[in-house]
Design goal:
The protein has 184 residues and is α/β, with parallel strands linked by helices. Helices cover 41% and strands 22% of the residues. The protein has a single domain, classed as P-loop containing nucleotide triphosphate hydrolases (Rossmann fold), CATH 3.40.50.300. The chain contains seven helices and nine strands. A hairpin with a 2-residue loop joins strand 5 and strand 6. The longest helix is centred in the last third of the chain and has 15 residues. The chain starts with 5 loop residues before the first strand and ends with a helix. The structure holds adenosine-5'-diphosphate and guanosine-5'-monophosphate. The site of guanosine-5'-monophosphate has 14 residues, from strand 5 and strand 6.
Length: 184
């Protein structure tokens, strides 16, 4: 029988660098898979359906909720986001590590189905730096950035509820810490 895999939940405020960390981590570890979420947010320029997200209408998303197809879901800055359950189940049964890059409310729901998931919170070195990163990314309108910053304050207050807290100040240092926590 295959050794069961592991579910890793990476959370933290938008703009903290979760995506950057995951993009660096994936090519280094062949048994690590990133779950592709469903969302009702509009695609950003360059985002591809089925690759960055599964882009859905609100009606389609609500049908997925009703059918129990989501491992977790949450409303964030006016849109739905959620993790399709079947691909996660399959990868874990095959002995792989699956990483979810999600916001805090959803990260808390994961425990209900995967009690032994490893839950990691990524922190910015300061709130000012978080704001700079969000703006520097340059792909969200000002209204969306403002909503994300309001939400970030609430999220940062919950960081201690997670198994590990990692500060993403120097990227390489944060990556090394993340690898230690996941693979030790
Ligand atoms: P998230 O996925 O958490 O929303 P991103 O990975 O998109 O965040 O990162 C937001 C911005 O911050 C990007 O422009 C990224 O290049 C930058 N960034 C990420 N990590 C660092 C870091 N350690 N130092 C400086 N800038 C960073
Ligand atoms: P963005 O719009 O910047 O791509 O994502 C906004 C926020 O939603 C980020 O914090 C991101 O981690 C989170 N997110 C992405 N996918 C999911 C998901 O499947 N579930 C939940 N709960 N949050 C998600």
């Amino acid at each position: 029988m295959t050794t069961p895999g592991k579910l890793i939940v990476l959370t933290g405020p938008s703009g903290v660098g979760k995506g950057t960390l995951v993009r660096s981590l994936l090519p280094r570890h062949q048994n690590l898979f990133l779950s592709i979420s469903a969302t009702t947010r509009q695609p950003r320029p360059g985002e591809v359906d089925g690759q960055d997200y599964f882009f859905k209408t609100r009606e389609q998303f609500e049908t997925m909720i009703a059918a129990g197809e989501l491992l977790e879901w949450a409303e964030y800055a006016g849109n739905y986001y959620g993790t399709p359950l079947p691909p996660v189940k399959t990868q874990i049964q095959q002995g792989n590590f699956v990483i979810l890059e999600i916001e805090v409310i959803g990260a808390n729901q994961v425990k209900e189905i995967y009690a032994d998931a490893l839950r990691i919170f990524i922190l910015p070195p300061s709130f000012e730096e978080l704001e700079q990163r969000l703006r520097g990314r340059g792909n969200d309108p000002e209204a969306a950035i403002a909503k994300r910053l309001v939400r970030a304050k609430e999220e940062l207050a919950m960081s201690h509820e997670f198994d590990h807290e990692i500060v993403n100040d120097d990227l390489e240092t944060a990556l090394t810490e993340l690898e230690k926590v996941i693979f030790s």
